[in-house]
UniProtKB/TrEMBL annotation:
<feature type="transmembrane region" description="Helical">
    <location>
        <begin position="94"/>
        <end position="117"/>
    </location>
</feature>
<keyword id="KW-0472">Membrane</keyword>
<feature type="compositionally biased region" description="Low complexity">
    <location>
        <begin position="20"/>
        <end position="42"/>
    </location>
</feature>
<feature type="transmembrane region" description="Helical">
    <location>
        <begin position="123"/>
        <end position="144"/>
    </location>
</feature>
<feature type="region of interest" description="Disordered">
    <location>
        <begin position="1"/>
        <end position="75"/>
    </location>
</feature>
<feature type="compositionally biased region" description="Pro residues">
    <location>
        <begin position="9"/>
        <end position="19"/>
    </location>
</feature>
<keyword id="KW-1133">Transmembrane helix</keyword>
<keyword id="KW-0812">Transmembrane</keyword>
<feature type="compositionally biased region" description="Pro residues">
    <location>
        <begin position="60"/>
        <end position="70"/>
    </location>
</feature>
<protein>
    <submittedName>
        <fullName>Uncharacterized protein</fullName>
    </submittedName>
</protein>
<feature type="transmembrane region" description="Helical">
    <location>
        <begin position="151"/>
        <end position="173"/>
    </location>
</feature>
Amino acid sequence: MTERQPSWPATPPPVPPHGAAPSHAAVSPPGAVPPHGGARPPSDVVPPSVYQHPGRPGYAPRPVPQPPPGFYARPPSGLFPGPSRPIYREPHPITAAPVLSGFGATLLWFALFGGLAHDLATYAWWTIVASITAWAMAIVLTLLGDRGVAVGIALASGLGLSIAAAFVGTRWIDTYDWPLW
């Protein structure tokens, strides 16, 4: 037998057989004497989660990576093996109530501006003015306020402007005269 040289790796701890109860301390082979002559220090104790695979002695199992802080993963369904994808959630979700309130307020806004008109040309121009002011308000609300209300304003503004454009286009097709000049 040869002597153990300092550059040689230490003997790996024994691997418990499959199904055996794990022991919490490493067991020295019979007749082995630690190099310092006494009992093994606590650093040689192998925790039960670091046992090696019986078929591959000398290789420690690959550590399981821990997710970063703030990472929320959905529980696996079992259909596809492996880790699931992270779920990204909107910090300020848009719900239906603010969208509907912005839509209703903008419809009232367009009705008030439409009430100032006395013919199609003035109705179209007042609708254009109302839509520009509504879009400006939607931009302000998008940047500083409630984005749900801004979405409702943008929807109603687009609807109101398209209705006015349909009336202008219908008049233009019927009379061959552009009604806005």
